[in-house]
What we know:
Strand order of the largest sheet: 8-9-10-1-11-21-12
Largest sheet: 7 strands, mixed
Radius of gyration: 23 Å
Number of helices: 18
Helix content: 25-40%
Distance between the termini: 34 Å
Amino acid sequence: MPRKSLLASAAAVAAALALALSGCAGGATADSAASSTPRAGGSLTIGIDNWCGAYDKQQTSGCTFSNIQVTDNLVDQDPETGKVVPWLATSWKVSDDAKTYTFTLRKGVTFSNGEAFDAQAVKENFDAVIALGKQGNAFQSSAYLLGYTGSTVIDPQHVAVSFSQPKAGFLQSLSEAPLGIVSPSTTKETAAERANGVVGSGPFVISKLEQGKQIVLTKRKDYDWGSSVRGNTGAAYLSKLTFLVIPEASARIGALTSGQVDAISYPSSNDIAEVKSSSNVFSAASAGVVYTLYPNTSDPLLAQEPVRQAIQRSIDRDEIKQVTLDDTGKAATNIVSSTFPGWTDLSSHLTDSKAAVKKILQGAGWSKGSDGIWAKDGQRLSTNLQYSDANDKQQFELIQQQLKANGIEVRLEQLTAAQLSANQDTGDWGLQYGNLTRPDPDVFLSAFTSDFASRIKQDADPSLVALIKQQSAESDTAKRTKLSQEIQERIVDEGLGFPIHEATSVIATSKDVHGVRFTAPWWAYFGSAWKDGQ
């Protein structure tokens, strides 16, 4: 999901670090080729960039770092191959019309409060997601269950989940954090109660949650049903995880290099060299929609396809990579990342070209004004780019310069996250920035249709939306991939999103921790991690 950074005062950072001292024991390293033998014991403190709001993943896009350590899923997705593999569900059958999925569930699984994991628990989870969605509290998870008509408990180990239409992306969606399975008692709680912490069947249990400050998880000793692609199917090696909120990147780096924390998320690009000199840096590209400038297609100017096409061909993505990103970053080659299933290289469609921009705009009746900005019928080709994260300013200033060199004016407006959201509601915006992580073509439903993307008030191209919905119902994998690739190309060519660079999850650690894995979307998983000398 989109990453947002918040700035904190020095006093707030100091207070946060003080909270961590009791749970911090040395440093950490995330590595896939571990240099030591796994051993049990020890704790890990991870400095994260922002508080995530409600802890319940079924009703928030945040908290994924910590939440995936607490909840398990029916299936998992292999980050190397993209293949969906068994987890809490050991097998499944799909009806010929792809409307009903029947699952065989793993025996012997329990939630951390002792409740049994069974078919009834699965049914109650899905029913609860729908109920939360109707309350407006489960935007992402309820979108995954679009068309859900109910679950039938066949017996404790078998459940049939049905939809009103073919649901080609359902299996993959079951591997996503928003559909992590929580206990029956959790499903009966109110949305507000669930926001204070959920009970899952995962390798860690919530032991402390301080709003805006930290989340402390402790090991579940009897855990032995982990995913086969996460490096450890048994109980976690580490005894405790502390996720400590340290909003400012420089403060997180200082905490890591001084040994006050073991690992940090999202060190700034400008500081990667410093971090690498004393720590290890590991990254995973997000499989989904890359960091993108989204145009407001309800705006009369940006509703014009030639204008959007001209903006698309004015952006020099390679220069953005060279100037503003470190070596963990990658320039966009499509609206989706190169790790996305069915990705195709559309670099040639995204190459910046003054000649192409001139041809597009002149063909649509635009002409250069005396100030060098294109104009038509008395209107200058001018819009705004609204953002909240100060860390993005350098990148946006460069994009502003690139567009100006092509006769397009962009005004930069730094606002609060709340103001950005409010402007989406009123339509008072031109360009906004974000990404969306999901390694499945149904990500296009969430990002580019008015049914699910809150920024879209009216679909710019109904035929494209029909194509997106068609792929969602296509059960033939090859046909669905072909539809997905056509969608990718149309989004790029119609300028419905201006891809900038691939989203990357970055973890920096000290030298004595090993075995941190990344999930298929891009989240760091600590159930397989251990520390030297414990």
